[in-house]
Amino acid sequence: MPHLLNIWPSITARLLKKPENGRILALFDYDGTLTPIAARPEDALLPPETQQQLTALAAHPRCIVGIVSGRSLADLTALADIPNLIYAGNHGMEIRGPGLNFTHPDAITARAALERTQSTLAAALSHIPGIIIEDKGLTLTVHYRAPVNAAPDNQRQALTREVDAAVTSAAAHYVETGQLRLTRGKMVLEVRPAIPWDKGKAIEKIRENYNDRPIPLYFGDDRTDEDGFRAVQQMGGLAVFVGPPRQSTTALHQLESPKEVSQTLRLLLEEL
Q1: Per the count of CB atoms within 10 A, which of 45, 62, 131, 256 is most buried?
Q2: How far is CA 208 from its chain centroid?
């Protein structure tokens, strides 16, 4: 898997320099992609340089820019706070931006099941300091990075298994009845409506809003980004995994860190 910055001239030749190339749809995950992952969700702040670069890209006539995240839409817009951006929260189940106002209708029907799951989880995990059960309206996320990092090395795997078992048990009835599903990320467990929707379908939904079919780029760092990678590559776009090289990703290109994502944004602005 080539490092994107090492082959940047060939990428720009393919995506930017040909006369037939039109606009670019540049989409990014948030945590671990645009900003380093933090122990507490509210501490993952967008670096000022990255915010400035995204603002400049969003203002450029050849670019459409957005963030596709597991965070809630309200949380995402408050953290990024960039005009003219597309914000896709809860893995794209809610999308807002210029000409876009979408909430997946089937996601709303799972609200009662999510509330009961959250109540059960709050009781089951109350003895673990630092656990965060985040209600994101259309989904729930259990963050356990802080307690795992604080635990002795020989207890971390056991603590991870305990949290996983608690979430699995709390949601079991709703998973079995087809109302909810569980997904796993980097020290997070997510409880989502059991609907056929993911970041890939959200990216397709966003792109369909533009008649000129802009070339899609998607940068992400976690398992939930794999659907986005597959979608953009099927469209002839560019998928970039952010993190150490690994064999299990479907993305064909790689960057090491959010810092290198910022470097890529700077190069992209120079080429436009």
Answers
A1: 131
A2: 19
Find the catalytic residue in 29, 31, 75, 222. 29
What are the tokens at 113? 């099941």
Rounded CA separation 56/54 (Å):
5
Annotated domain spans of the chain: 4-104+197-271, 107-193
Distance (Å) of CA 223 to CA 155, 181, 203: 25, 15, 16
Superfamily of 107-193 according to CATH: Trehalose-6-phosphate phosphatase related protein; domain 2 (3.30.70.1020)
Q: Which fold has domain 4-104+197-271?
A: Rossmann fold (3.40.50)
Among the listed residues 155, 128, 158, 127, the one whose alpha carbon sits nearest the alpha carbon of residue 144: 128
What one-letter code names the amino acid at 34?
L
3-state secondary structure of 131: coil
Q: Report yes or no: 84 and 118 within 8 Å, Cβ to Cβ.
A: no
For the beta carbon of residue 42, count every other beta carbon within 10 angstroms: 11
Q: Specify whether 225 is catalytic.
A: no
Output the pTM of the full model.
Answer: 0.90
Print pLDDT tens along the chain (272 aa): 899 999 999 988 887 765 566 899 999 999 999 999 887 888 889 999 999 999 999 999 999 999 999 999 999 999 999 999 999 999 999 999 999 999 999 998 999 999 999 999 999 999 999 999 999 999 999 999 888 888 888 889 999 999 999 999 999 999 999 999 999 988 899 999 999 999 999 999 999 999 999 999 999 999 899 999 999 999 999 999 999 886 689 999 999 999 999 999 999 999 88
Enumerate helices (H) and strands (E) in the chain, giving the number of each. 10, 12
